[in-house]
Amino acid sequence: MSTERKFQAPPSLNPYTGPWDNEVVKHLLRRTMFGAKKDDISYFAGLGRAKAIDQILDTSLPLPAPPVKEYAVGNAAMPDTLIGPGETWVNDPNNDGTIASYRRASFKKWWVGNLINQDRTIRENMCIFWHNHFSTETNDIGNAQFVYKHHALIRANALGNIKSLVRAISVDPSMLVYLNGQNNNKFAPDENYAREIQELFVIGKGVGADFSEADVKAAAKLLTGWRNDSNKMESYFDATRHDVTNKQFSAFYGNKVIAGKTGATGGDIELDEFINMLFANSEAALFLCRKLYIWFVYYKITPEVESNIIVPLAKIMRDNNFDVKPVLNALLGSDHFFDAMNRGCQIKSPVTMMIGLLREFDVKFPTEDMYATNYGLWNQMLSYFTNLQQNLGDPPDVSGWKAYYQEPGYYEYWINTDTLPKRIQYLDALVTSGYTISGFKVVVDGLAYVKKMAAPNDPNKLIDDLSAHILGIPISASHKAQLKKDILLSGQSDDLYWAAAWDLFISTPTNAANTKYVTTAITNLIKYMVDLPEYQLC
Amino acid sequence: MNRRKFLNGYLPAGVMVPSFVNGMGFKAFESGHTFLNNLLLPGGDNDRVFVVIQLNGGNDGLNTVIPLDQFGKYANARKNIFIEESKVLRLNGIENVGLHPAMTGLQQLYNDGKLHVVQSVGYAQPNFSHFRATDIWMSASDSKQVLNTGWLGRFLDEMYPGFPIGYPNSNMTDPLAIQIGSVTSLTLQGPAQPMGMSISNPSSFYSFVNNQIDTAPNTYAGKELTFVREMAKQTQKFGDVIKLANSKVTTQSPYPTGNSLADQLKIVSRLIKGGLKTKIYMVNYGGFDTHSNQTVAGDTSIGYHATLLGNVSNAIKAFMDDLKFQGVEDRVIGMTYSEFGRRILSNGSSGTDHGAAAPLFVFGARVQAGVSGTTPILPANATVGDNVPYQYDFRSVYASILSNWLCVDSTMLNNVMLKNFQELPLTKLGTCSIMKPVGNPDQLIVLYPNPFHKKITIQFKSAGGHIMIQVMDASGRLVKILIDREFDPGTFRIDFDGEHLPAGLYYIRFQNQVMQQVKSVVKM
User: Fold this and answer.
1) Which residue segment(s) compose the domain that A480 sits in?
2) From the CB of residue A159, how many other CB atoms can be counted at a distance below 10 Å?
3) Contact list, A478 vs chain B (CB under 8 Å)
4) Residue B34 shares a structural domain with residue B99
């Protein structure tokens, strides 16, 4: 039907050497930071390629303070009265079910706050990447302290070493609950985690990933004995529940036998050996690199991409002993990442779209001290995500969101006849009326946004500027001309009509009729732009 | 060219309907109206509806349809979670199986002649990964084969070629398929795009103004842009017809509350009665991944799994009652499925791990009530890897529904299912065409010696036609396909050399037309 789609240049990890202009910077920011803020575009454009990538991957910035108590204890049986309002609850081992549900909600709202207030790095994006990779559900975990601890582990290692992260995740209290590790014992092994660590976390289901059911059973035995202590808020190893027989793995793992170990350190020793065995398999780096590629570039991995991008990227990963930073540095700075073919081809996730809108238009939230109002406002964003099928903290299942693994549509699974109208509805709500919690209104301030433009009284430049800033693919000149005429010029054909209205608005904002005209025109223009299918792409 | 395309292409609109077919007035048929429709509109162009209920997570089949004839072995394998024999719900005229105590609704449907239980549905080389197993069920692929289209997507693509270009039109004014909820299922994926529509609230669609369409560039971005535009177009085109259909139905018989499956089926009933020509509805109900605490200690008839099964049963019963109340029950059949069953042996967490074959339910007023297949053969001392071997390929169920409910002709059936599958007597005789009655399967195969050391002889009875004989191990893995070809009627023998096999339990599965049989053998 259509001619074959071709890359601009053969896929290569060679550093990008083309012009470092606003266009490439926007592409980088949209893929790594949920929408491109105007200030960020100029900042990163000034850095040049190498420094810009270094900045994106900077891990020296401080981690955010933990979530706080912003809930009323209600009729909880064991209220956490020792924790004051606005103080963090993450170190208090309260086990009351009602309190736990408030705390899980508090955690999720706090997460949204971090997304909105992120620094100029890829960290928030990587937190969601790993959340999707090591998919767990807060509702299943239940214990809010575990939930936070799991998230903090991912956050602290978001740009760290994948191997040590997998090691830590394997005995992380949340994961021990979510995939039944805490119930896995020598008397009745539970294979849940043993399977998923191979299939979903490290080895994958690629053509060459040929681990067997026997490997799942051997790994289940090896992982027996781990338990959770909710009072200490940590996991521990119970040697009496550990299967000390030797674990025989299949030819896929070189017929390796991991010797059963007795005593208090047995679980750790065997686990270390198991993790080493998994990561020594060549499938591990290939699988992880494919996942990063699908997350940051596009879901179609052609044979050319496999050989020119995935294979060398996996080598970088192995050569760096599974540190993720050098891998991202190579991928995000590469010629291939900036290839014209790879721009604008991701369908935004609900989080990317909604947080992106807030960031693109610099939507204002209350100051930090008004934490209760902020948590309430952040909560509304969570409902948007959830209704659009990205319930942050609670993905559909252990495989994560379909957009990142389901053939053949991948990102297209975000969009259907139910979610597309809802996407438009929520975008429109934020652009037009906004929403209000405790007297604070969150809404796109189109006038403030346009005022910062170089020539807001030139309707052509205004539309050029706005569309180039927020649309994943440019729209045509005739489309823009139509928009100008219909929206800014109110059906007139003379540009001066808009220039006069804008200038009058600046000089005499008290002219109610004119101000209303300008305000409505800008709101309608932004609404029109975000309603475009082009806005769904990044 | 198949018959449907022929008729669509060559019959002028408003052609006269002959009042007799082959000399028989259609009143002579039990369901003459339907019969006539099928003659005029072959290949599925009828008013039949098919509802798919997906039970996400892998439902525990052995605690759903309980093997009464092997109760001791069942209870032994599941000491912490087995359902007490006295609590198992009995089915009229059925001795060997009963239902989980929470499933009174389905018990009632069975006794009313509206439920068919298919035992041990699965496939060779079962996959134990949720998402891979789900893909296999949705795409109707072999275990190792990756198909990027869904089985109902392929069916709808055959029925409505070229969709969405040129739709809606006078032949099809409505969405081809509707998925309740906000997700898109691989089941409805056609060769080019999804063939169905997802809706969560049929009474409101947010309408957005469509805009000027610039040419999509020939890049990945252009591909995705075209996809988003297509979804926008479909939302607008079909939103109104759904709202209208939904608004036409103001009274429904009662549904349970706090039951999300019932909520979904309530919408489906309304849209069917409201006049949508939509053929396929898909609904979901999750939470079946019961690795732990699937029953309450002390009373295994209640607990987490019981709640799930109770909700499924109550929802289907209420749906059936409502379809009857709306006067459309003859037009609808439904099916439940889950991506896999669970292990024979329960685990130490009062749960069960990922397994292989499991029973599924087909329901509807036009369903032929019954239980297909025997209860799964359970080992006396089950070990952790033991699985229920499959008796029926899940694609046999699909093929039967396509062929005998949606009245798809053999050419189209082959295009959808991609190969031949045994058809099962799930629907009443004469619904599409006459099905051959099922023979008594008691002595289809005879195995000797059993136990065996080196060689075992399989003697089998052929009724003519395609025969397949497979050997599977205790975990359900396919060891060998002994026979996969056409046979004349008669009795035949084949030897299987199993000298190289490890000692243990094996299954021999025989399949000939609509009949099949699974027997166990022991290798010494």
Assistant:
1) 447-536
2) 18
3) 212
4) no
Question: Which residues in chain A are closer than 8 Å to B220, comparing Cβ atoms?
Answer: 5, 298, 300, 341-342, 345
Give the tens place of pLDDT for each residue, A297-351. Answer: 999 999 999 999 999 999 999 999 999 999 999 999 999 999 999 999 999 999 9
Residue B410, judged by CB atoms within 10 A of its CB (0-12, 13-18, 19+), counts as: exposed
Q: pLDDT tens across B41-77, in order? A: 333 457 899 999 999 999 999 999 999 999 999 999 9
Which of B186, B212, B347 is nearest residue A406 as measured by Cβ atoms?
B186
Domain that residue B77 falls in: 53-363+390-417
φ and ψ of A39, to 5 deg: -60, -40
A160 Rama sector, left if φ>0, alpha if ψ -120 to 50, beta otherwise: beta
3-state DSSP assignment of residue B63 = helix
Q: How many Cβ pairs closer than 8 A exist between chain A and B? A: 175
CA atoms within 13 A on the CB side of B245: 23
pLDDT for B314 beyond 70: yes
**Ramachandran sector of residue B9 (left: φ over 0; alpha: ψ -120 to 50; beta: rest):** alpha
Q: Cβ B211–A2 below 8 Å, yes or no? A: no
Q: What share of chain A is helix, strand, coil (3-state, %, to 5)?
A: 55, 5, 40
Look up residue B262 and give its two tokens.
């019932």
Residues of A in contact with B129 (CB under 8 A): 195, 199, 205
B470 pLDDT more than 60? yes
Backbone torsions φ then ψ of A258, nearest 5 degrees: -100, 120
Cβ partners under 8 Å of residue A313, min gap 6? A13, A289, A292, A293, A327, A330, A331
**Closest C-alpha among B478, B465, B480 to residue B516:** B465
Question: Which CATH number goes with the domain that contains B486?
Answer: 2.60.40.1930
Distance CA(B224)–CA(B232), nearest Å, equals 12
Q: Is B277 on the interface with A (CB under 8 A)?
A: no
Shared domain check, B82 and B6: no
Q: Does residue B89 lie in a domain region?
A: yes
Amino acid of residue A469 = H
Q: Which of A530, A525, A368, A361 is nearest to A442 (CA)?
A: A361
Distance CA B471, CA B478 (A): 6
Q: How far is CA B84 from the centre of its chain?
A: 29
Interchain proximity A398–B347, CB inside 8 Å:
no
B102–chain A nearest CA distance, Å: 24
B182:A195 CB<8 A: no
Predicted complex: ipTM over 0.85: yes
Q: Is residue A457 part of a domain?
A: yes
- Residue B301 and residue B193 in one domain: yes
- Cα-based distances in Å from A335 to A331, A340, A480, B508: 9, 10, 31, 57
Q: Which amino acid is at B406?
A: L
Describe the crossing of helices A419-432 and A371-387 by its angle, rounded to 10 degrees. 150
The phi and psi torsions of B116 (rounded to 5 degrees) equal -125, 130
Distance, in Å, from the CA atom of B386 to the CA atom of B446, rounded to the nearest integer, reads 24
Other C-beta atoms lying within 10 Å of the C-beta of residue B336: 22
Peptide bond into A350 cis (omega under 30): no
Among chain B residues, CA nearest to A348: B224
Residue A452 lies in a domain: yes
B225 has a chain A CB within 8 A of its CB? yes
In angstroms and rounded to an integer, the radius of gyration of the C-alpha atoms of chain B is 24
Tell me the chain B residues in contact with residue A417 when contact means C-beta distances shorter than 8 Å.
197-199, 231, 234-235, 238-239
d(C-alpha A490, C-alpha A524), whole Å? 11
Q: Full-prediction pTM beyond 0.90?
A: no
pLDDT in tens, A21-65: 999 999 999 999 999 999 999 999 999 999 999 999 999 999 999
